[in-house]
């Protein structure tokens, strides 16, 4: 079965220690089949370590992990063939030509083809999908950095994976390649119903791509929700400004829609030049990470985020 109860990933109480340092202090989350989940967090938060455990490349210290219905510590080649992995670092195959390499990598997946999922992905179709059709017959050593990154993505997708891990996939891509890549992620989700777990430091990318975001900081999950749910967690960050009686007024409020409704109910036609600046995902991210870092440094002193309106 591709999943257990519609879930591609289940993590419960995951702990990881490197020597005497505990990097993950009991992390729990689930990812539904077909969901695009972005894992965010500061450098060193444990994102890559978490993904490596899910991929079966790193042993956990404690906790329960289930990926596509299997404990990754016990994963077989057949289980691994159902996943696609795009790592942060380049693989080095300088003498291969692009098409040859993809055809070879694809052939490794052929034994795992099923009537439902035909493996591998047709090489020409895949080259077109990642924008490498013109480079198909070039040796890999002559590709630009961005083209090599596209090839990394193609290698991760050639087996028509049910679950794709993308570790900072758009680093080094130009804006057009980045936009094409976002379209490709949507395509693999929509056409193949693949589950996608992506790590990125680009909050704009996370907001555009992810159905759900998890923020990891100080060894734990500090937020888990849709981009707009996360943004709403940071109360008092929507800025509403308007002109009334010739003077500009400014308020910072938790819910700008409700505030504007009240404003119009009260002052009606005399409101001019209403502007609302919603809290951004970046505002939310920075506040949540800052809170987690302060809580870790001074466990007793951290005050909760303010709620409601303030000047
Ligand atoms: N093999 C290792 N041995 C010891 N410590 C390690 C090892 N790998 C990672 N670490 C440490 O574990 C912590 C988490 O690292 P990890 O690479 O998972 O973070 P990350 O969130 O992916 O960071 P980045 O955003 O910089 O990629 C870091 O403090 C790192 O130094």
UniProtKB/TrEMBL annotation:
Membrane topology category: Peripheral membrane protein
Keyword Iron-sulfur: no
Principal location listed in the UniProt entry: membrane
Any one GO CC term of the record: plasma membrane
Domain ABC transporter residue range list: 9-243
The entry's keywords: Antibiotic resistance, ATP-binding, Nucleotide-binding, Transport
Family annotation (SMART domains): AAA
Highest taxon listed in the record's lineage: Bacteria
Protein name, as recorded: ABC transporter ATP-binding protein
Pfam family, any one: ABC_tran
Annotated CDD domains: ABC_DR_subfamily_A
Gene Ontology MF terms in the entry: ATP binding; ATP hydrolysis activity
Subcellular localization, as worded in the UniProt entry: Cell membrane
GO BP annotation list: response to antibiotic
Thylakoid recorded as keyword: no
């Amino acid at each position: 079965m591709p999943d257990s109860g519609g879930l591609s990933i289940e993590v419960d109480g995951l702990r990881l220690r490197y020597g005497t340092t505990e990097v993950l202090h009991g992390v729990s989350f689930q990812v539904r089949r077909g969901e695009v989940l972005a894992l965010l967090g500061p450098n060193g938060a444990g994102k890559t370590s978490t993904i490596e455990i899910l991929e079966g490349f790193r042993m956990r210290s404690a906790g329960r992990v289930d990926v596509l219905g299997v404990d990754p510590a016990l994963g077989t080649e057949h289980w691994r063939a159902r996943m696609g992995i795009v790592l942060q670092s380049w693989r080095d195959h300088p003498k291969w030509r692009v098409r040859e390499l993809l055809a070879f990598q694809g052939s490794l997946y052929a034994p795992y083809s099923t009537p439902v999922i035909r493996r591998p992905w047709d090489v020409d179709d895949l080259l077109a999908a990642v924008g490498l059709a013109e480079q198909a017959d070039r040796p890999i050593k002559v590709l630009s950095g961005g083209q090599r990154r596209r090839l990394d993505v193609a290698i991760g997708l050639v087996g028509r994976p049910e679950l794709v891990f993308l570790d900072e996939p758009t680093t080094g891509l130009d804006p057009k390649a980045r936009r094409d890549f976002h379209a490709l992620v949507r395509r693999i989700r929509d056409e193949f119903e693949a589950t996608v777990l992506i790590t990125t430091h680009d909050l704009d990318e996370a907001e555009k791509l992810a159905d759900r975001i998890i923020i990891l900081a100080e060894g734990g999950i500090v937020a888990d929700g849709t981009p707009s749910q996360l943004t709403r967690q940071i109360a008092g960050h929507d800025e509403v400004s308007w002109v009334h009686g010739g003077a500009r007024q400014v308020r910072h409020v938790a819910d700008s829609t409700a505030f504007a409704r009240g404003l119009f109910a009260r002052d009606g036609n005399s409101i001019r030049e209403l502007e609302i600046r919603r809290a951004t995902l970046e505002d939310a991210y920075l506040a949540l990470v800052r809170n987690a870092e302060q809580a870790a440094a001074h466990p007793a002193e951290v005050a909760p985020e303010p709620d409601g309106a303030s000047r």
